[in-house]
Amino acid sequence: MITVESNPPLARDYHKILNKNISKIGSTCAPQIENQWQECVELPLIDLRGLTSNDEGERAKCAEEIVRASSEWGFFQVVNHGFSPKLLSQMRREQINLFNASFAKKSTFGLLNNSYRWGSPNATSTQHFSWSEAFHIPLTKISDQACYGEFASLREVLVEYAAAMQKLAKLLAEVLITNLGQKTEEFEEMVCCDESTCFLRLNRYPACPLSQEMFGLVPHTDSDFLTILHQDQVGGLQLMKDSKWVAVNPNKDALIVNIGDLFQAWSNDLYKSVEHKVMANTKMERFSVAYFLCPSYDSLIRSCKEPSLYRNFTFGEYRNKVQEDAKLIGHKVGLPRFRF
Fold first, then answer.
1. Residue 232 near residue 284, CB atoms below 8 Å
2. What is the pLDDT of residue 35?
3. Among 96, 268, 273, 291, which has the minimal tally of Cβ within 10 Å of its Cβ?
4. What's the sign of the alpha-carbon dihedral 119, 124, 128, 129?
């Protein structure tokens, strides 16, 4: 057995799951990867300056590009997104400093509202194990000085970063809602997506010397309306396109946007919440920050067109079912649970 010391102790838990499965079925249950080489793709690239143009035609063209990418890919990337290079570099520097802390400090010192997570506590096999760690932070806690301890310099950056993410997410959501024939005000009355419901997730994917086929984050769809991701240049993000996994080429100037389960249900499958994953790197660690546009737990999610493909459900009901499935079978099922 290979012994690897890591912060956090991912190898320890991985080997526990591996040995448990070997004793049960007499063979390993390593992640099943079709092949190590993956086709690399460039996601649709959208210049958001078009949305603020004085030219009505330019605004319409940009909105059409967002809608088309959301329908055909479920993923796209945006430039001229409102984030300064200085803010993005400050965020990355503070993020690295935070994750460089000892495992004991991250897991027991109450940092960032006790939001630290690592590995996959509910994993029942190595196929459900994620080689990663994260802080999953409610936006309401970002301004709370008591959450930071010795990482006080992170607070100012996170406050500015979260505000910029909210602004961008609402801009994109407005485009998608308007295309469905709804008014933004009506949408916001039905579902409340503000700092009391949305999250930032700071991710680190440590180098994994155990295998080239290790999941940094297991295949999944996002349980929100939309996600905005800022990743580094290491790569590892893959998504399902035309029934096969494709690798996404990093673009240092762009943010990645993907549709979540709630927008797929709300649009009656016009917009696609696409399965995606992160593959760990054997030699290099990877960092990313994700923003999740989520509603209140009592918000009713219903398709905007009839006949509806999904039964009505609250976001709280959806989250509870996702968590229940994770405990029972080790992974998320998601929207198929609510499909007629």
1. no
2. 47
3. 96
4. positive
Q: 302 in helix, strand or coil?
A: coil
The pLDDT tens digits for 63-73 are 999 999 999 99
Q: Where are the alpha helices (DSSP H) in 53-199?
A: 56-72, 85-99, 103-108, 111-114, 152-179, 184-190
Say yes or no to pLDDT of 27 above 70.
Answer: no
The residue ranges of every structural domain in the chain are 13-22+39-338
Predicted local confidence at residue 31, as pLDDT: 52
Query: Going along the chain, which residue ranges are E strands?
Result: 40-41, 45-47, 75-79, 116-118, 133-138, 199-205, 215-220, 226-231, 237-241, 244-248, 255-259, 276-279, 286-293, 300-301, 313-314
Query: 2 pLDDT exceeds 50?
Result: no
Instruction: Answer for the pair 193, 17: CB distance below 8 angstroms, yes or no.
Output: no
Average pLDDT over residues 27-47: 71
Q: Which residues pair with 239 in a beta bridge?
A: 246, 276
Global confidence as pTM? 0.94
Tokens of 147: 């959450």
As its CATH architecture, domain 13-22+39-338 has Sandwich (2.60)
H helix or E strand, kind and range, residue 309: none
Contact 97, 151 (CB under 8 A): yes
